[in-house]
Design a protein that fits this description.
By secondary structure, the chain is an all-beta fold. The chain has six domains: 1-80, no CATH class; 84-178, Immunoglobulins (Immunoglobulin-like), CATH 2.60.40; 187-313, Immunoglobulins (Immunoglobulin-like), CATH 2.60.40.10; 325-407, Immunoglobulin-like; 412-498, Immunoglobulins (Immunoglobulin-like, Sandwich), CATH 2.60.40; 499-662, Immunoglobulins (Immunoglobulin-like), CATH 2.60.40.10. It has two helices and 46 strands. It is rod-shaped, with a radius of gyration of 61 Å. It starts with 18 loop residues before the first strand and ends in a 22-residue tail after the last helix.
Length: 662
């Protein structure tokens, strides 16, 4: 039954007695096979494979023969009546020899087989003759087979031609094979029929290969050989019983009886032999001989009684290749060109390369390189085990695994901004542009960006960063990108931060009970000679804040009164001696002369009225009595020197229109 190495078969249910034929190229590599099925008179399976990986299978599924009975299209070809049977004297004959041919008519096809008019054709020679069957339904003719070639001549098959008989619409045929070497008797050692199966074990893995003239009879120490040699008779007479001898490469000879052989009848000898491990490099010979005593005296050629096959004992090729390292999307050279064959000759390589095809598992690509050089590009990082098969001219193979380290390509990142200069504490926006050329995601890939120390308004992981600086001068901002493989790249951007004016001035006034609040007109209210504390504060960059100069004009009524302080804050005590609305001013400047501008505040100073202590009573007083009256009054310190004390000593009159007579 047609079946391949993996158990596949044809769909047709018959063809249980088929023949397999395998074709080999000039390198001894199988290019395909076919199964011939006699019961359908054709091939049941045609299989071909080429170097580019194209595999074609033609399999028999259904067979419907014309004129047959009992046909089951999927299992049974049925039977055909052979109305005319063509029987040549010999199926194989020599060139240009006459041969008797009989044609027998079948009673299943003809009601009367006697006297049947026939034609016998040997068309390749242009021979046609008319025949009439005898009473037994048979007719006879003498045919010269000729010497015409066909399109498939071989050593054993010079040509194959058909003999065709015809009676009405009934046809019969037979095949006659011509052999240019066919003689009376010729027993020979058939070198073309020799078969050697080589079993080679590497570790626990054993493989069996058939050796032939195309592949070469190449072996290694330790190989086990199953040897099959053949003897044949290329004569039309049967040979006499004699002997056959098979001599192994180590000189051991095995002799067997060679039975009588008819025309092209074969006899085979079998032997196993293991190549000793100590065998050196070079040729060894297997020899077999028929009729060593030349008992067949009529043998036409004793020279071809001996056949031989020369084995070549070699060594496995030695692979040599350094482990390369490269980047993704970079052409990496895998160089196995230093590999060599100890027994001489050139080597070639086959690379079995794993690669990331975007799924969770690797895919593989097989590449043949006669120079043992391969340039390959991977899109993802990793360590890829590349299997290199080094093959020598004897088709011996050694496999090595080369780890190719493909390093991740760092992401690319760039920082841009519309400005390269900003004022201290003023915002500036930076933009990070990044891509990962070997990302598993679509372009531009996945790159996470963060800005260490930038304190971005948008957050920690962001591609847009709004930030500033609290100090003057150049400041470098760094964006760090991390790709999906954990590789890190960074980019920087320099911004010059310039000086800013002192700003956000804050002026406070404090009394004995704490801060004095302003009224709705932003005016403080104090009294004459009230001591208050005035505080001033301004904001600036960190590098300027401690070097500020505070200049105060506490009272516009006193232009020459100026107070100056250095530092972040200023503080002093102030007293107003005159009632009224007073204005104070503050200006803050930094070390570079930048000024905040003048900040003004208003103070309403209220006059404090003098106070009179109660006068001690003097009544009653007698008429004409002298009395002494004492009074005491006070005022604020600034007014006390100008205080005027007035007495109304006549209660009957109001001399200053102030007070009452009561």
């Amino acid at each position: 039954k047609p079946t391949n190495d993996v158990g596949q078969s044809i769909d047709y249910g018959g063809c249980n007695e088929s023949y397999e034929m395998t074709s080999f190229n000039s390198n001894g590599v199988s290019e395909g096979y076919r199964w011939y099925c006699p019961e359908v008179r054709n091939y049941a399976w045609l299989h071909t494979a080429d170097d580019i990986g194209l595999v074609i299978d033609f399999k028999l599924k259904r067979y419907d023969p014309v004129g047959a009975t009992g046909v089951e299209p999927y299992t049974n070809p049925g039977t055909r009546s052979d109305c005319l049977e063509v029987v040549p004297e010999r199926s194989i004959t020599a060139l240009d020899t006459p041969m008797q041919v009989w044609v027998n008519a079948s009673s299943s096809c003809f009601s009367n087989t006697a006297g049947l008019q026939l034609e016998l054709h040997h068309e390749v020679e242009g021979f046609v003759t008319s025949l009439t069957t005898a009473a037994n339904g048979s007719a006879w003719a003498l045919v010269d087979v000729g010497d015409a070639l066909d399109s498939s001549a071989t050593q054993l098959d010079y040509a194959s031609h058909g003999l065709v008989a015809k009676a009405g619409n009934k046809v019969g045929a037979a095949t006659v094979t011509l052999d240019q070497y066919l003689v009376g008797l010729d027993v020979f050692a058939d070198e073309e029929a020799a078969v050697i199966l080589r079993e080679r074990c590497i570790g626990d893995v054993c493989t069996v290969s058939q050796l032939n003239a195309l592949s070469g009879y190449n072996v290694l120490p330790g190989d086990r050989l199953d040897i099959e040699v053949a003897f044949n008779n290329r004569g039309i007479t049967t040979s006499t019983t004699t002997d056959a001898r098979l001599t192994m490469p180590d000189g051991v000879a095995i002799t067997e009886e060679l039975p009588p052989l008819e025309t092209y009848q074969a006899y085979k000898m079998y032997q196993t032999w293991e190549v000793p491990n100590s065998t050196g490099i070079g040729p060894l010979q297997i020899q077999w001989e028929a009729d060593t005593g030349q008992l067949n005296a009529a043998d036409a050629n004793f020279q071809n009684n001996i056949g031989s096959i020369e084995l070549f004992v070699g060594r496995l090729p030695t692979p040599v290749a350094p482990e390369p390292i490269g980047l993704t999307q970079e052409t990496i050279l895998i160089n196995a060109s230093a590999s060599y064959d100890e027994d001489g000759g050139n080597v070639s390589c086959e690379f079995y390369v794993p690669f990331d095809d975007g799924t969770r598992t690797w895919d593989y690509e097989r590449i043949v390189s006669p120079t043992c050089l391969l340039e390959y590009t991977w899109i993802d990082d990793g360590v890829y085990p590349v299997q290199i098969t080094v093959e020598d001219e004897e088709r011996d193979e050694t496999v090595m695994v080369l780890n190719v380290t493909v390093q991740n390509r760092d992401p690319e990142i760039e920082v841009r901004s519309q400005r390269t200069e900003a004022k201290v504490e003023y915002p500036i926006t930076l933009y990070a542009y990044a891509n990962d050329s070997d990302s598993e995601k679509v372009w531009p890939g996945v790159v996470d960006i963060y800005w260490p120390g930038a304190n971005c308004k948008e957050g920690y992981y962001t591609r847009v960063c709004t930030t500033t600086s609290t100090t003057e001068g150049w400041k470098t901002f760094t964006a760090i990108g991390t790709d999906d493989d954990g590789a890190v790249a960074s980019a920087t951007f320099d911004v010059k931060f310039t000086n800013i004016r002192p700003h956000s001035l804050n002026v406070q006034m404090l009394g004995d009970d704490g801060p004095i609040t302003m009224d709705a007109q932003d005016t403080w209210h104090v009294e004459e000679d009230q001591t208050v504390t005035v505080k001033g504060q301004a904001q600036d960059s960190v590098d300027d804040i401690n070097d500020l100069t505070h200049t105060w004009w506490p009272d516009d009524a006193q232009p020459s009164l100026i107070r100056v302080f250095d530092g972040r804050t200023s503080e002093y005590e102030m007293v107003w001696l005159e009632a009224g609305l007073h204005k104070m001013r503050l200006e803050v400047t930094d070390s570079e002369g930048a000024t905040s501008g003048i900040e003004e505040r208003w103070v309403s100073v209220q006059n404090v009225p003098p106070t009179i202590e109660p006068i001690a009573p003097v009544l009653p007083v007698a008429e004409g009595q002298s009395i002494r009256v004492s009074g005491s009054s006070t005022d604020t310190p600034s007014d006390v020197d100008t205080l005027v004390r007035c007495w109304d000593i006549d209660p009957s009159m109001d001399s200053d229109d102030f007070g009452s007579a009561d």
